[in-house]
Design goal:
The protein is mostly helical. It is built from five helices and no strands. The protein has helices at 2-62, 69-84, 86-114, 121-142, 144-177. Helix 3 (86-114) runs antiparallel to helix 4 (121-142).
């Protein structure tokens, strides 16, 4: 049993370092290529939607009584849109993000307005965060391309951090078996 654990540990650290390095590379690429990377991701999502939509339609055609035709048709339509106009889809997603930021910012003000404790530190922080969210949301509405770039940079940084954590995990595993 102990021999098996050592064997797994010998492969686990290697798998962790490979995954960590791949995540670091992907994160850096997302941060560097930003909107272009988002378009590639959206096109990839479009391809997946086409495949899954095709599978739903195949199921509808081959299995009597299934109701998967609408799902398949919707997925195929979305897949085509994601592939043909990824820039438009990106703009729609960024506009949606902007609206969400504005709504959540406004909700922070509403929460403050109905609160009995307006002078506490959490209430003031809540108002400041709400104001920042609304400002960012309005900025995002008028600068969809910049918003997409910023979102991809933030996602890239988080992926790099996840990769670095995975590499550290690999180092700890390596130390344990050697």
């Amino acid at each position: 049993m102990a021999e098996r654990n050592i064997t797994h540990a010998k492969t686990d650290w290697l798998r962790s370092i490979i995954i960590g390095l791949v995540l670091i590379i992907i994160g850096i690429l997302l941060a560097i290529y930003q909107r272009d990377a988002l378009k590639i991701i959206l096109m990839g999502a479009g391809i997946v939607a086409l495949i899954v939509g095709g599978a739903y339609i195949y199921e509808y055609l081959t299995v009597p009584g299934t109701v998967s035709l609408p799902y398949g048709a919707i997925l195929i339509a979305l897949g085509i849109v994601f592939i043909v106009v990824p820039g438009f889809v990106s703009d729609v997603l960024m506009a949606l993000l902007a609206v969400i930021l504005i709504v959540f910012g406004a909700l922070a003000f509403v929460r403050f307005a109905v609160s009995d404790e307006k002078t506490t530190v959490p209430a003031v922080i809540n108002v400041v965060i709400g104001m920042l969210m609304m400002i960012l949301g309005v900025y995002a509405v008028f600068n969809l391309e910049d918003t997409a770039d910023i979102v991809m940079i933030v996602i890239g940084v988080f992926i790099v951090i996840a990769g670095a954590i995975e590499v550290l995990k690999a180092y700890e595993q390596y130390k344990w078996i050697h």
